Amino acid sequence: MATPVKVYGPPLSTAVCRVVACLLEKDVEFQLISLNMAKGDHKKPDFLKIQPFGQVPAFQDEKISLFESRAICRYVCENYPEKGNKGLFGTNPLAKASIDQWLEAEGQSFNPPSSALVFQLALAPRMNIKQDEGVIKQNEEKLAKVLDVYEKRLGESRFLAGDEFSLADLSHLPNAHYLVNATDRGEILTSRDNVGRWWGEISNRDSWKKVVDMQKQQHSP
Amino acid sequence: MTTLIKLYGAPVSTCTARVMTCLHEKAVDFALVPVDLFSCEHKQPPFLAKNPFGQIPVLEDGDLTLFESRAMTAYVAEKFKEAGTDLIRHHDLKEAALVKVWIEVESQQFHPAIAPIVYEYFVAPIQGKSPDQGVIDANLEKLSKVLDVYEAKLSSAKYLAGDFYSLADLHHLPYTYYFMKTPCASIISERAHVKAWWEDISSRPAFNKVSEGMNFGEK
């Protein structure tokens, strides 16, 4: 029986959740080793050896040590192809490429403005950092333009890359979850008919519900 | 019979250059279909049907249409994995995984810091604006921190994912090429290993075929 893979990082981290959601979809057993970022665990020499940028997550299985959540997700899908959701990253090169382009769109177009908004609206207040209204407005506008494209796409297709849930949809879950549940700007997603419908579907997947439970457990006393 | 790959884009465009360099490395024939940026061809319905984000490039291979340059290079590198330069190290699980990691490093750490600087020096002037020094300075600081990690990495291996050239290195070419023409180039040249790495990857024939057309803003 295989040793569980290791994921380093706190369950509240969006990038950590991206990897955890993927591992759950792929039914790959894992051990989550939380880090205390408030104490600077992620900047200590031992951690920097496996993640030289001092960020979370880091990942280890029997063969290798990796970082960057989307690289980890692609690796998991390619190296555990027979496990769990086999079509998560496509079962043929054309399907994979179609998923990959939407995973890139998430990384290049959705992630920057949504991350900025999550930081400004959900995290900054908790960290006693002053919000920057200019940054908020700028990123709301950017995100709105991206979601206009998604709205049209999701009127033509059930999920971003086609009829099946894929790694591309999954990659959006962490930031979208915070926007909807931890800020007052959730309607940027929910007020758009098709995006709202899509959000409802993807956030109701068993794998994502388990991630949300893990996050809640970290919060409870 | 294989169809000819079509790449819709412009020779001066960084993201088009990224894909063209990959195609040359793999010795794959393709046709560059020019997109008229000045008449906003990329923002109009026929093109939007290919890329709803209204950006170049777009790749067509038979029935497959792709946007996002890094999805294109990944597709080409995998489809033609037995041809030309081995960009994804598919024969070695560990090497292949490390290539994936450093592809994401370019995408998530390097690109967000270098792109705004290139924009301020090359694109803003075309729109009648002067380069915003605040934006440049803030991003130079970020880029310097990223390059510190690169300097350390490249002191123990010739390329980013190991002692082999890969797609991870290739993805850095277009933006860095323009960056080296700005007053900020010293942050690359003052780091010995980053400088050596840059000189190596930017002198590859596949890239030279592409950089000939990268004369944005030059008369």
Would you summarize the structure shown here?
The complex is a heterodimer of chains A (221) and B (219). With 221 residues, chain A is of the alpha+beta class. Chain A has helices at residues 14-25, 45-48, 69-79, 93-123, 133-156, 167-182, 187-190, 193-203, 206-219; strands at residues 5-8, 30-33, 58-60, 65-67.
Model description:
The complex is a heterodimer of chains A (about 220) and B (about 220). Chain A contains nine helices and four strands, in the order E-H-E-H-E-E-H-H-H-H-H-H-H. Chain A has helices at about 15-25, 45-50, 70-80, 95-125, 135-155, 165-180, 185-190, 195-205, 205-220; strands at about 5-10, 30-35, 60, 65. With about 220 residues, chain B is an alpha+beta fold. Chain B has a four-stranded mixed beta sheet, with helices on one face. Chain B has helices at about 15-25, 45-50, 70-80, 95-125, 135-155, 165-170, 175-180, 185-190, 190-200, 205-210; strands at about 5-10, 30-35, 60, 65. Chain B contains ten helices and four strands, in the order βαβαββαααααααα. Chain B: Belongs to the GST superfamily. Phi family.
Distance between the termini of chain B: 42 Å
Give the low-pLDDT segments of chain B: none
The secondary-structure class of chain A comes to alpha+beta
Shape of chain A: globular
Percentage of β-strand residues of chain B: 5-15%
Q: What percentage of the residues of chain A does DSSP assign to strands (E)? A: 5-15%
Q: What radius of gyration of chain B results from the CA coordinates?
A: 17 Å
Number of strands of chain B: 4
Total helical elements of chain B = 10
What is the terminal separation of chain A in angstroms? 34 Å
User: Can you give the mean pLDDT of chain A?
Assistant: 96
Oligomer: heterodimer
Strand order of the largest sheet of chain A: 2-1-3-4
CATH topology of the largest domain in chain B: Glutathione S-transferase Yfyf (Class Pi), Chain A, domain 2
In terms of per-residue confidence, which ranges of chain A show pLDDT below 50 for 5 or more consecutive residues? none
Q: Tell me the number of structural domains of chain B.
A: 2
